[in-house]
Design goal:
The complex is a heterodimer of chains A (159) and B (526). Chain A has 159 residues and is an alpha+beta fold. Helix content of chain A is 43%, strand content 11%. Chain A folds into two domains: 58 residues, no CATH class; 79 residues, Glutaredoxin (3-Layer(aba) Sandwich). A four-stranded mixed beta sheet of chain A has the order 2-1-3-4, covered by helices on one side. The two termini of chain A are 29 Å apart. With 526 residues, chain B is α/β, with parallel strands linked by helices. Chain B folds into four domains: 93 residues, Glutaredoxin (3-Layer(aba) Sandwich); 210 residues, 3-Layer(aba) Sandwich (Rossmann fold), CATH 3.40.50; 91 residues, Ubiquitin-like (UB roll); 99 residues, NADH-ubiquinone oxidoreductase 51kDa subunit, iron-sulphur binding domain (de novo design (two linked rop proteins), Up-down Bundle). The chains are: A alpha+beta (159), B alpha/beta (526). Chains A and B meet through helix 2, helix 4 and helix 5 of A and helix 1, strand 8, strand 12, strand 16 and helix 16 of B.
Chain lengths: 159, 526
């Protein structure tokens, strides 16, 4: 599947990221994190560049990218809302919070709103298990959510 | 005026940053010189953000603090609406035996001098004067067992690595704390990172390893930030580097970040991930102690195991071993979570009964309803009914009740919990997070969801099928994900049969998960 078209300088930036991690043993995950940080996702065009630099096959790089939940092959919405689905948050009504968020956004898990504003993702534990239900909104942690508070949180994210 | 406002992720998620800002603003407005320390959490999560003021009478606690409470903190402290009294006199604090967490919430996490003033580095200095064999013997004699859940004796693992031949050995700290209901690793790293660094350095001295890695899950941004900063500070101060405290022995640490795969908390899959591969479980043998990171001898220990080593070296093996129950020696940081009135971190000697933990310390369900079930040990741990609340906290004691203590997470559910749904979730979680290596896990978990759904529809014939499937998963999986998912499922079925026998209710039957909830499958062709 061809990825969305990338700016022409993608390769140069990917190469610069690889160079910054040259001294590490087992550098692939740090490189992928840095690439995703730079581009918002791991572009298809980055895979052969990384593969060549690390002397592994493109299939191996693809295998690693696709194994981990964190890495995306396409850009997310402008905001990413991760709601905890794990047991401790469920014990405090996490499922109702998730239903409210899905209804409000009109998307399911891994979905992005039609205007591209918010991507909704499940997460399995943020370590906030004594103050659930918990969420991470654009990297910021929020605790003790209920349907009303997750609504306010989403209002605060848009557009 | 010296004030403590936690920088712990739970405190921040409950508004600690806004509290800190409000206190700073108020101090400026009043012309008061404010020394604001962003400490770790004391572990009383229901009181977070818990603000403390340093006074001649000791530290006074205020919480749960809101930004609007800031102004009153500059007046009569005793009259403050959120005043709780001296922190150390709070029942939650007084009842604990804080060894591993002695400094968490007390010190400035990134102040090495503060760390040393509270007993830090004593263990490392003592270790530097010992032979590697003596350090291993001290840790072995302490009775310390792996706090990640497996409970393997730490000293024996270290001895295997120490005796393994190899020019380069490693210490890998497993900070991929993915179990729901657990947050001890996170709190330790955010509240007292130098303890972990010191423990890893001692592990290096004991085994001959000179390079350490801390593999932290990406869901812990605060812990990652604090650990990065702490390693840099330790390196600058010579606590890490080519010559530990001027001893001539080398040890250094690199922080690595996971990528959202639960299975990477399993040690062999963590090692593959660290090497830059898919986090697929490896068969054992070879043991990681002999062929771990890059095939080299490697100590893989949990955060709490490593962070407990300094106090063992500081106070001695006999002191530590004196606490505990049976073959579970020392203390365990209990993490009380879920639907519970007083949730948080409570470090105590092994041996408290589940009833004491949930009803007495935790204060029962937050909802005020009766406690129905308690899941101990994370998503792979069993659900305990009230009938088993007399079980004392220990590795063997829980195994004897067909459960496990895991990483000591305790998740409380009130009587609104539907245990069939929880059993279904256990299978669904396993299906989402399976690394795919073992068929009983990869496919069995999917069949498990379907089988639980049949039971939910009133198909009693599916019950023996589920039991049989659990036996297959348990016997036919390499690691604890597929092997232990039967614990929550079977315990739910065994202890809460009514939830499985009830006639089908139209609103109860959960729809099958959508395809996008399963792991992404490799695309057929690029």
């Amino acid at each position: 599947m061809p990825g969305p078209s990338e700016p022409a300088d993608t390769d140069a930036e990917v190469r610069a990221i690889i160079a910054r991690h040259a001294g590490l043993e087992g550098p692939l995950l740090p490189i992928l994190h840095a690439v995703q940080h730079a581009f918002g996702h791991v572009p298809q065009t980055a895979l052969p560049v990384i593969a060549a630099a690390l002397n592994i096959s493109r299939a191996e790089v693809h295998g690693v990218v696709s194994f981990y939940h964190d890495f995306r092959d396409a850009p997310a919405g402008r905001h990413v809302l991760k709601l905890c689905r794990a047991e401790a948050c469920q014990a405090m009504g996490g499922e109702a919070v998730a239903s409210a968020a899905q209804a409000m956004l009109g998307v399911g898990w891994h979905g992005t709103t039609r205007d591209g504003a918010v991507t909704l993702e499940p997460v399995f534990c943020l370590g906030l298990c004594a103050c659930g239900p918990a969420a991470m909104a654009d990297g910021r942690l929020v605790a003790r959510l209920d349907a009303a508070r997750v609504g306010a949180l989403i209002e605060g994210l848009a557009p | 005026m010296k004030v403590f406002v936690p920088r712990d992720a739970a405190a921040r998620a409950l508004g600690a940053d806004a509290v800190a800002d409000a206190l700073r603003d108020e101090a400026v407005r009043r012309g008061v010189t404010l020394s604001l320390v962003r400490n770790g959490s004391r572990g009383m999560v229901w009181l977070e953000p818990l603000v403390e003021v340093d006074t001649p009478r000791g530290r006074l606690a205020f919480g749960p603090f809101e930004a609007g409470d800031a102004a009153a903190l500059f007046g009569d402290l005793a009259a403050h609406p959120k005043a709780l009294g001296p922190t150390d006199a709070l029942p939650w604090m007084k009842r604990q035996t804080r060894l591993t967490f002695a400094r968490v919430g007390v010190i400035d996490p990134l102040d090495l001098a503060d760390y040393a003033a509270h007993g830090g580095l004593v263990g490392l200095r003592r270790a530097l004067a010992m032979t590697p064999a003596e350090i291993v013997a001290e840790v072995t004699d302490s009775g310390l067992r792996g706090r990640g859940g497996a409970g393997f004796p730490t000293g024996i693992k270290w001895r295997t690595v120490a005796e393994a031949p190899g020019p380069q050995k490693h210490v890998v700290c497993n900070a991929d704390e993915g179990d729901s209901g657990t947050f001890a690793d996170r709190m330790l790293m955010e509240g007292d990172p130098f303890t972990l660094i010191e423990g890893m350095a001692i592990a290096g001295l004991a085994t001959g390893a000179t390079i350490g890695y801390v593999y932290i899950r990406s869901e812990y941004p605060d812990a990652i930030e604090v650990m990065h900063a702490a390693v840099a500070i330790a390196r600058d101060a010579g606590v890490l580097g080519p010559s530990l405290l001027g001893s001539g022995s080398a040890f250094d640490i690199e922080i690595r970040v996971g990528a959202g795969a639960y299975v990477c908390g399993e040690e062999t899959s963590l090692l593959n991930s660290l090497e830059g591969k898919r986090g697929v479980v490896r068969a054992k043998p070879p043991l990681p102690a002999l062929q771990g990171f890059m095939g080299r001898p490697t100590v893989v220990n949990n955060v709490i195991s490593l962070a407990t080593v300094p106090v063992i070296l500081e106070r001695g093996a006999a002191f530590y071993k004196d606490f505990g129950l049976g073959r579970s020696r020392g203390t365990i940081p209990l993490q009380i979570a879920g639907n519970v009135r007083h949730g948080g971190l409570f470090e105590a000697a092994f041996g408290l009964t589940l009833g004491e933990i949930v009803d007495d310390i935790g204060g029962g369900a937050a909802s005020g309803r009766p406690v129905k079930a308690v899941q101990v040990g994370g998503p792979l741990g069993a659900y305990f009914p009230r009938a088993l609340f007399d079980t004392p906290f220990g590795f063997e004691e829980y195994a004897a009740k067909d459960g496990l203590i895991g990483h000591a997470g305790i998740v409380v559910f009130d009587d609104s919990a539907d245990m069939l749904r929880m059993a279904r979730f256990a299978m669904e979680f396993c299906a989402i997070e399976s690394c795919g290596k073992c068929t009983p896990c990869r496919i069995g978990a999917v069949r498990g969801v379907e089988t639980v759904d049949r039971i939910a529809r009133g198909d009693a014939a599916a019950v023996p099928l589920l039991i049989d499937l659990c036996a297959t998963m348990r016997a036919g999986s390499l690691c604890a994900l597929g092997g232990f998912t039967p614990y929550p499922v079977m315990s739910a079925l065994t202890h809460f049969p009514d939830d499985f026998a009830a006639p089908p209710q139209s609103d109860r039957y959960a729809r099958p998960p959508k395809a996008d909830q399963y792991p992404r499958l490799p695309e057929a062709a690029a």
